[in-house]
Amino acid sequence: MNADLSDIRGWVFDVDGCLIRTAAAGGHGGQLFPGAREILNQLHDAGHKVIVCTNASERPPEVYAEHLREIGLPVRDDAFVTAGSAAADHVLAHHPGARVLVVGAEGVSAPMRERGLELVEPGSPLADVVVVGAAASYDAATLNAAALAVADGAAFYTTAGTPWFHGGRGRSLAVSASIAASVSFATGREPIVAGKPSAVLAESLLRRLDVDLHVDRFRHPQALRRSEIVLHEEVLGQRRHVLRNAMIPVITMLGFSLAGIAFTSFIVERYFGIPGIGDLFISSIFARDYPIINAIVIIGTTMFVLANLIVDLIYPWLDPRIRLGGAHVE
Question: Is 50 helix (H, G, I), strand (E, B) or coil?
């Protein structure tokens, strides 16, 4: 372990697309990335606190942790955090004594019960808190009870806030986000996200790492000290900087911008009287020289197509999680 990493107080690893390439939230059916097992073993051997997290919420944390151990990752049950368990931590801390309606499966209900929270069923008095998680199916009665409670002022949470799940093998629908969106459509209220990235999950992770930072500091990142933000991860001696992932939208715009600059140069050429393809294009329009016009349009179209192709080829190099594959729900 390098000396410059010695003051790190704890490590948090995402499962899907980081430790495991998978099409299923929580790592089910996935394949370990090279070095994933080794880095966790090294950190444990060095005495570091290590937490593994996922946006999955269909199953309880111990079920996901057991599966990870089966495929070789040294993950303890109490060191595995799901969006469902993070939601339970948050409800216990911020809504003590509240009656909770879970729209989802055991991945949310079980952590709630373990923390002594009162769960209500459809048909009971309206809940104080509604939490939407992933499930294989949902029933109309539960959705109706959730919408009525949220419309009446209940706190509203969802385990996922993005429409798609990406785990390195294609994308699939984040069903918890979609179900929460249906409740939002009916009530006009937006849910608070309990999964990545959110202050709710950050608060749960900090508690497990025994870091005394108030959750409000995560709503205002400038309040965090520079030393508390790790901008790179050490994986078997290689630093993979966050800059590569952050470059994806930049590369997307840059590719089309360069093609656009080359093809729309006729504005500059025409204005300043510079001979070139742009000036030729304008002259051909006035002269109705259709073969030349068609040729230039084909050249410009080809430039845009090639720019798009090059950008697509660069994506997997910037972020190896971008792959084609199967699908599953989150």
Answer: strand
Prediction pTM value: 0.64
Helix (H, G, I), strand (E, B) or coil at 269: helix
Q: For residue 54, what are the β-bridge partners?
A: 82
d(CA 32, CA 68): 9
Signed CA dihedral, 171, 172, 174, 178: sign only: positive
| C-alpha–C-alpha distance, residues 105 and 175, integer Å | 12
pLDDT digits (tens, 9 = 90+) for 210-244: 876 554 444 444 444 433 433 333 333 334 445 66
The number of helices, as runs of H, and strands, as runs of E, in the chain is 12, 14
Beta-sheet pairing, 238-241 with 31-32:
unpaired
In this structure, how many other beta carbons lie within 10 angstroms of the beta carbon of residue 19?
A: 23
Tell me which residue of 160, 150, 155 sits closest to 188, measured CA to CA.
Answer: 150
Give the CA diameter of the chain: 82
**Burial (CB count <10 Å: 0-12, 13-18, 19+), residue 286:** exposed
